[in-house]
Amino acid sequence: MKILKNIAKGFLIVLVIANVALWVTGNTHLYKGLSDTYFQGRLKPGVDDPDIFHTRVLEAGETKPWEISKSFGSSELSDDIKKTNSKFGTLAYLVIHKDSIVHEDYYDHYSKNTLSNSFSMAKTILSIITGAAVKEGKVDVNASVHSYIPEFITAKDSALKVKHLLTMTSGMNFRESYGNPFGFMAKAYYGTDLRGLTSGYGIEKTPGSEHSYLGGNNLLLSFLLEKATGQKVSDYGSEKIWSKLGMENDGKWILDHEDGDEKTFSGVYATARDYAKLGELYINKGNAYGEQLVDTSYVNASITAVNVNDTEGKNTDYYGYSWWLTKYEGHEIFYLRGILGQYVFCIPDKDLIIVRLGKFRNPEKTDGVNPDDIWVYIKEGLSIIE
């Protein structure tokens, strides 16, 4: 009995020391990270958990539902995509051709009204919202970030421009590691003070000289947008973009705390059909139902490759203003992408949009850039409209 008491006492002491250490080192985000991932039987955030965070609404305006094609339901999915869907936990697969749905499948508990986590597709959504601010003259992509948010970027780093945040070429020293539970991204996703977390960083490489994928860039951009527009990112995005696209549902954007800041590197929740509306906006060069929401020049710049070397020495011919770029069998493709296989593929020469939402993506990248599963979804979508 005495031994058991000593063990219990020792465990309690260790627990107290560990808790004190977390508070002293600023790692209290681990409490939420553990409770909402590991204690839920997961190693990563999930696609269905917006309610573990405070959120702000992306308000839909007048709903303009997608048309249903006369050929809807006439195509049986191939064995190849069926295997891929099963292996990587596809939850939604949607194919839209010439503004009409030609194929739509949902799996598990999903339906056309199910909100799902965008993960890094939110970076592209932030870029679209920035485009609206550029159109209004509230943001200049060639202006110094320091001129907007001197409290984050000092005068000595005034070479940093807005476009460097959009293209992930800021040269900032955020030191992000997506697999490190003590790292910047873990603190950003599960923490409660994005502004405090993002303060005190600076430039270590010449802006525009190297592509480095850093979520901290998105946070700086969102603070800049709020300063320039006088509105929270979701509120401005609702007014200028979300409410103008005929969305069928309100969206949500997760916050660091109640009435706080959007975690703009991730965490938009919306439906497959509504994510497709974002792709349609850019296929239509920034125009929605006759209203120009984003200037065509900004759209074109957004889907033009950065063409500087990335951190591995590869030319960044695959990234624009937070849009991913690729090619398939002669088709130019730009797309939104999230870490668990959230995709919105836009193939303008076919007037084709393909949405895939799911639980996982293929970890293999044969070309070093694109997850190997994307080719299955693209090939299938093209096959359906043939």
Pick out its properties.
386 residues, alpha+beta, 12 helices, 13 strands, 33% helix
Describe the structure.
- This protein is about 35% helix and about 15% strand.
- It is α+β, with helices and mostly antiparallel strands.
- It has a seven-stranded mixed β-sheet, sandwiched between helices. Strands 1-6-7-5 form a four-stranded antiparallel β-sheet. A two-stranded antiparallel sheet has the order 8-9.
- A hairpin with a 4-residue loop joins strand 12 (about 340-345) and strand 13.
- Helix 2 packs across helix 6 (about 185-190) and helix 4 (about 120-135) packs parallel to helix 8.
- It is globular and about 60 Å long.
- The protein starts with a helix and ends with a helix.
- Residues about 15-40 have low confidence and may be disordered.
Number of helices: 12
Strand order of the largest sheet: 2-4-3-13-12-11-10
Gap between N and C termini? 75 Å
Mean pLDDT, rounded to whole units? Answer: 90
- As an assembly, this protein is single chain
Biggest sheet statistics: 7 strands, mixed
What is the radius of gyration computed over CA atoms, rounded to a whole number of angstroms? 22 Å
Order of SSEs, N→C?
A: HHEEHEEEHHHHHHEEHEEHEEEEH
- Helix proportion: 25-40%
Low-confidence stretches: 14-42
> How much beta, percentage-wise?
15-25%
Dominant shape: globular
The secondary structure category is alpha+beta
